[in-house]
Design a protein that fits this description.
177 residues, 52% helix, mainly alpha, 3 helices
Amino acid sequence: MPTARRARPDRNSATDATRSGRSRITLLSLWRSRRAARDRKVSPLPSQPELPQPLQRLKKIQRWSAVTAVVAIALAVVAYGQTVQIQNAWSSDYKRLQTLQRQERDLRVALEVLKDQVARQAEAADSTLQPPSPKQLIFLRPSGETVTPGRSPNVPAALPPLVGDGNAPADPKPIGY
């Protein structure tokens, strides 16, 4: 809202205003005119004539198509955001998978190196490694089997034959570890 500016009094301004017959604008007169404008009632606009039926249908179609367009744009933005998020998650998971695969390869190489070292130590002439004997092995029963009294759970019911039988291998080895 513009504010009233006071005119600078010139030498001839007072005499010019009285000579021309114009009155001076004062703050009081501005305030009174604004108050009068504020107090006036605003008359309502005349109502518009009703549109024909085909135009009303077109107007409704336009409103609904605008709403549909806004919803479609919102869904497209959400779908795009989900796509970007999924791609970022997939990318980070794929990098993690590659890191784990590289670590797995390194561990496999290290395991094979250790196996090779143990095999070389076992084949060496000064090695103290010996194949396990059946008395050093621990045998576990299946969970459904009951304990027979008078027998140690670590000794099998029948020991495999030692060396010398024709149907037994020369080096007895356990079935599994």
